[in-house]
Structure formats: structure tokens, C-alpha cells
């Protein structure tokens, strides 16, 4: 009996040891697999976002072919950046942007410039949403009493377009609005600007950002603060005017290491100064300033 009981006891111990080893192996495997899965998922999101921007870029070039090389810009001559259109569902341009009697002036949003690619280029509103840009969804016209086939009859991504457009665009309402004649390495659009409020978070604290280049080099975490929040500060997808897209690890990826999300301050273009919604303009023809609309208060 004792020998038999001892045999059974050893079996139970062996079973426990096997279970511990198996559980340990599974836990170790999860430590390897889970981070790898998360990295794979982040990479997949970036690729989708990159594909969106590439298609937007190609549509921009088609649009520019019809407008003497000028990239899309809402409104008309003298239009300024403002919080919303006069009437985004208006039948005519002047009424939509609130133009004066001569057809000039008025105000437009950054997103209304990109919406021209939906209105005239036939792009889907879904292309303007990054999956990692929280609380941003594709513009669904039916929610506003508009049929899908009537998209060409409106002028923006709804009454609060920041919730339906994830991308920053080179400031179109200035003397330095872009044309296809500029160099191929000029950034034209990218993930949401970190220094402008978004639908799910406030603008970053600029004092915590230090350029990643000497002699202004700060810590890696400080440098990451200048990246778009859409991809966890890891970097941003950037569309260049030759329609290629790259995932830039730092925001200073414009010409001469210009920061694409800030204006030149006359000293350190790699850091610059943060933009102010409805106010900031590029300081120079080589100053890339990619901005987006902040959400409107409900």
C-alpha cells in the first residue's frame, strides 16, 4: 500500500511540475507574442493611413492639373482660415464661404480644402480618417439629411469637420500656398498636428518639446512630444508633393530639417513656434506648416 501510495504521489508531483512548466512556457510565449502582435497591429494601422494619404496625394495632382498647378484651397481669393463655413450645405460657392459682393474674401476651414477632393475628385470620405485618430469617424451625410450621391453638393465634412478629417494640410490661405511647381520633397499633408486641439485630446505642451537635432537635442521622450499623437508619438505619415508617403520618426522632416507642424521663428526651424488656430501662416516659401481644424464646441 505504501509503495502504491508513493507511486501515486510522485505522479501527482510530476503532473504539477509539468503544468508549471507548461504555464511558464505559455507565459513566456505571451511575453514574446503579445508585443509582436501589438507592433504588427501598429504597423498595419500605419500602412492603412499611408495608403489613404497616397490616394489623397494622387487626387491632389489630378485636381492641380485642372487648376494651373494649384493644390486644393477652399473659398476664393482673399479667403481666410476660420471656424467653419458660412453654410457648408449651400448650393453655391459664394454662399458657402460667405464671399463678398465681388466673390472674394469669406472664410474656410482646412478640411474644406481637402473636401474638394471628395466634391470634385470622387474620393470617399473614409480616406480622410486615420483609424488611430480617436473619436474621428468617416463623414456620413445621411446623418445630416443628405444622400450619399449628394456629396458633390456640399462643401465640407459636416458642421464639425474636425471629427471627420484626421489629416493636417499645408496652410492653403496664404501667399505661400503650394503649387506642383515646388520641389518634390515638400511635405503637403500628414497626420494631425500635435499642437492643435483634436477631438479626443488637447494640444500638447510645447515647453516639453525639444528638437531631436543638435545643438537643440533633448531627451528622446522630449523629441517624441513633437510627433503626431495619432500614432502614439512614434512618428507621422507624411505625404510629399511627388505623392510618395513615408513614416517620419521626427517632425523636422521638411526642407532643410524644417518642422512640418510649426512656423519658423527666425532661429531654430527644427523646433519653430506652435501654430495658433485661425492665425498662423507660413513664414517663408520653404516653411512647411501643416495644420488642421480644431473641433468646434458643441
- Order of strands, main sheet, comes to 6-5-4-3-7
Number of domains: 1
List SSEs in N-to-C order: HEHEHEEHEEE
Low-pLDDT stretches are none
Helical coverage, percent range: 25-40%
Could you report the average pLDDT, rounded to the nearest whole number?
A: 87
Describe this structure in words.
With 298 residues, the protein is an alpha+beta fold. It has one domain. It has 4 helices and 7 strands, in the order H-E-H-E-H-E-E-H-E-E-E. The strands form 2 sheets. The protein has a 5-stranded antiparallel beta sheet with strand order 6-5-4-3-7, with helices on one face. A hairpin with a 4-residue loop joins strand 5 (236-240) and strand 6. The chain is globular and about 95 Å long.
